[in-house]
Amino acid sequence: MVLGVVALLWTLAGASALAQDATPPSRPPGATLEGWADRVHIALRDKRHAHGGLFYDRGVLRRLTPAMDHEYALDLELYGYTLRDDAQWYAAPLAFRTHMGSIHRSRFATASHFRNRIALRPRHTVTLTGLLQEDLSAERAFVEVGYQYQTGAHQLGFRQTVGSYKPDLDFGFNYAFASPTLGNVRVEATVLDLANNFIFDTLGADPVLEDTVRSYRRAPRYVTAQWMSPTWRRLRAEFHLGLQPRARADVHAQSQPHHRFTWEDQFHMMGGLVEADLSAITAGAIYRETRSRIRRTTPTGSAFTSDFTTAQTSRTVSAYVLARIWTLDLEAWGHLETYRDRQDGTDFDQASLDEAMNYREHRTALHIRLGRVPPDRGLRLALDYLLDSRRANDDIAVMNRYLSFPHYTPNGRFALQVGYAFSRRAYVIVGAAFDAGGDPFYGDRGLTRYDGGFGRVVVTT
Question: Computed from CA positions of residues 388, 358, 223, 115, in that sequence, does the dihedral angle turn out positive or negative?
Fold first, then answer.
C-alpha cells in the first residue's frame, strides 16, 4: 500500500509541474497489446509472489486457482482496463493508475501501476515501473529500474528488478530501433534469477533462514521481441513474442536432505494485432497465445516419488470496434478462447491434482461499453454489459475437485460507472455491477442481483 501511495504522490507532483508546459500527446492507437505483454512478463518473472509460489504446477499465469469462483473472470474484465485504456496509458511518459473491486464480502481485487520516464540529459533516460497487485492469482510488489541511451534512431539499455529475495532478481539488456517507415522494434534478453546459483552454491544459505535450496543445472533465460508498425493507409499492426527455453533445477530441503526433486519449466507467449483507423470508427483483430510447461521428477533416494508433467495452453482470437460520436464513446470487444490444462505422468505425488487429465475449455466472452467521455473536464458516465460463456469437456469433474467453487455458465453482468474527469489526463470512477441472471443455481437463497462495487483512478501526463 505504501508503494502505491508514494507512486501516486510522485506522479501527481510530476503532473502538476508539467501541466503548464505540456503539449497534447500525439493520438494514441485505438488499442495495444503492450499492457497484456507486460502482465504476462511480470507473471513469468515473479512466480514467487504468485499463488502457489515458485513450484506451482498449474501454469505461470494462474488461470485457475482454488478460490476463483464462476464470475472471477468477469470481475477482472470489468474492474481492470480494456486494451483501449492501455493504449492511452502507455502513450504517456509519466502515469499512474489503480483499480479495486469487490470479489467477495471480505476482499477486494486490486492493482496499482506506475511508470515514469525521466530524461536526465538529451541522450540519457531513466525508467521506473512498478505493479502492486493483490488478487486471487498473485500478491506482489514488482518494481523495476532501467536506463536507456539514445543515439539517433537507436537505443540501448538495461533493466533490473528490485526486491527483497535475492535469488529471484532478474537483469535484462535491450535494444530498440525507431523508423518512420519500419516502425518501432525492441528486443531484450533477460537473465532470470541472476544470483541464484551464486547464493546457494557458492555462498551457501543458512538453513535456519533459508531451508529450501534451488540449484540450476540449466539457468533460465527469457528473450522478448516487439514490433509496433507505423500507420500505413489507416492500418497499423503490433507483434509481441516472449520465449523462455527449458530451465532445470535441483531442489532440496537442508533440514531434510531426502526431500529433494528436479524441476523443469519453460514458457512462451505470442500476440499480434491488426487495426484499421476509419476516423470515427476504429476496428481491429487480435491473436494471443501463451503456453507454460513444467516437469517434476525425483532422483534416487528421495522421499518423494513425483514423476509428472503439466502444460497449460491458451489461444484467444479477438475482434473489437471503437467509435466516438461527440462525447459518446463505444467499445465492443469479442473473444473466443481455447484453454487446455493437461497432466500426464506415472506418479502424482506432490501435484495439485492427483491424477492424469486433459482439461479443455472453450470460452466465448463479450464486453460492450457505452459512455460519455468529456474532451477535457466534466462528468464521466458508462454502461457496461459483459458475457462469459464456457464449454468444458468431461475433465471438468477433475478440475472441480481442485476448485473451491463449481464453475457455472453462462454468466452475464451489467455495470453502471459514474466519475469525474479533472482534465483529459486525470479522472476517477466508481461503479456497481448487477448480475444479469441472478445466479438461480444457488439453492439456499433467492436471486442475487448485486455483483459488487469497484473504482478506478488514472493520472497521466
Answer: positive
- How do 426-435 and 411-423 pair as beta strands? antiparallel
Contacts of 44 (CB under 8 A, 6+ apart): 60, 222, 242, 244, 267
Q: Whole-angstrom Cα distance, residue 257 to residue 336? A: 47
Place of cell 537505443: 155
The pair phi, psi for residue 11, each rounded to 5°, is -65, -45
CA dist 11 and 19 (Å) reads 12
The rounded distance, in Å, linking the Cα atoms of 282 and 25 is: 19
Helix/strand/coil (H/E/C) assignment for every residue in 208-232 = CCCCEEEEEEECCEEEEEEEECCCE
- The answer to whether the CB of 306 falls within 8 A of the CB of 298 is yes
Q: Report the pLDDT value the prediction gives residue 153, as an integer from 0 to 100.
A: 95
Rounded distance, CA 283 to CA 392, Å?
30
With 0-12 / 13-18 / 19 or more C-beta atoms within 10 angstroms meaning exposed / middle / buried, residue 145 is: middle
Name residue 100's beta-bridge partners: 110, 455
Phi-psi domain of 405 (left: phi exceeds 0; alpha: psi -120 through 50; beta: other) = beta
pTM, two decimals, is 0.91
Determine the pLDDT at residue 28: 64
Q: Which residues in the chain come in under a pLDDT of 70?
A: 1-28, 443-446
pLDDT tens digits, residue range 334-364?
Answer: 999 999 999 999 999 999 999 999 999 999 9
User: What is the C-alpha separation between 454 and 77, in angstroms, rounded?
Assistant: 12
